[in-house]
Here is the input.
Amino acid sequence: MKVTEHISQAQGTPVSFEILPPLKGKGINALWEHLDPLMEFKPEFINVTYHRSESMFKKKPDGTFDKVEVRKRPGTVGICAAIQNKYKVDAVAHLICGGFSRQETEDALIDLNFLGVDNVLVLRGDAPKNESSFEPEPGGHKYAIELLRQVINMNNGIYIEEDLKNAVKTNFCIGVAGYPEKHFEAPNMQNDLSYLKAKVDAGAEYITTQMFFDNKKYFSFVEACRNAGIHVPVIPGLKPISTKKQLTIIPRTFHVDIPEELSTEILKCKTDAEVEVVGTEWLLKQSRELKQAGVPCLHYYTLGKARIIANVVKEIV
Ligand SMILES: Cc1cc2nc3c(=O)[nH]c(=O)nc-3n(C[C@H](O)[C@H](O)[C@H](O)COP(=O)(O)OP(=O)(O)OC[C@H]3O[C@@H](n4cnc5c(N)ncnc54)[C@H](O)[C@@H]3O)c2cc1C
Here is the structure.
């Protein structure tokens, strides 16, 4: 089933979860241990992130270094199929431009189609940590909208190889990312919204937001979307804070603000166990208010935080 169908048919406010593939070398059991406690909340769908490879320098016995490409978290396509098989819950495969050619993306889409994964979230991806700006892969896409058009093409039976006869039309439901606090590279919100509208006009059926810690930012963003002519569902993305370090890591990594009221409470905490209590209460407050406002779904970034998410979701479902 498509994410849009889950949203339109849900009774009450549905929940969904987002997970990362395990690090290379780890088995799937680590993932099941993470997801099992969350399944009692009957998520409508589970998103699985996609990751590019990164360059690393490996020291050789003679003291010199070799530059090697390492993809630390492969497996998105297989994990989506495994989730659908094990839990009978729809998976949403993230797809990114960065690090992948159009041909590799087409192959991944063919695999997803064969495996019965109907949902994709198309994204650009970020520059590798050691590079200052995003550069597309040779033969790859520069912006998420180009990747979106590739998926739309396949939904119309148009593949890269033009002379395919009677190529099967895929039927992917396509989501895109939105930023209540603006994408960090965009010069201003209006500019960012104009590109978001272009993605929706090109065929994106819903938006999932970057995390935010102040619901006012989400409500203003949805209003700005509507004023800009964007009328698809906007799914709020939510993440708990559980350590003091996150007060600096989250703004630096995700380019989002932490409200003063929350940071003040966290700074008063003596241990991370106390931070977790504050972070859980904050997330619960956010979730309740969003539910009350009738959001299409509550989407939780769960990485390593299954216990906190479970404590919040059990109070609101
Ligand atoms: C819900 C969610 C899930 C994510 N999952 C992943 C994941 O699984 N893997 C991963 O690597 N990253 C993921 N990310 C991070 C994401 O890849 C980055 O935020 C990335 O920097 C932007 O991706 P995008 O799809 O919004 O890009 P785009 O829509 O391409 O936008 C990127 C920037 O370019 C601008 N822009 C867009 N189109 C154009 C155009 N045609 N011309 C000029 N400027 C343009 C936009 O305003 C924006 O500033 C996720 C983010 C979110 C919010």
User: Anything to note?
Assistant: The chain is about 40% helix and 15% strand. Strands lie at 15-19, 45-48, 54-59, 65-70, 90-96, 119-123, 173-178, 206-211, 234-238, 298-301. The chain has a mean pLDDT of 96.
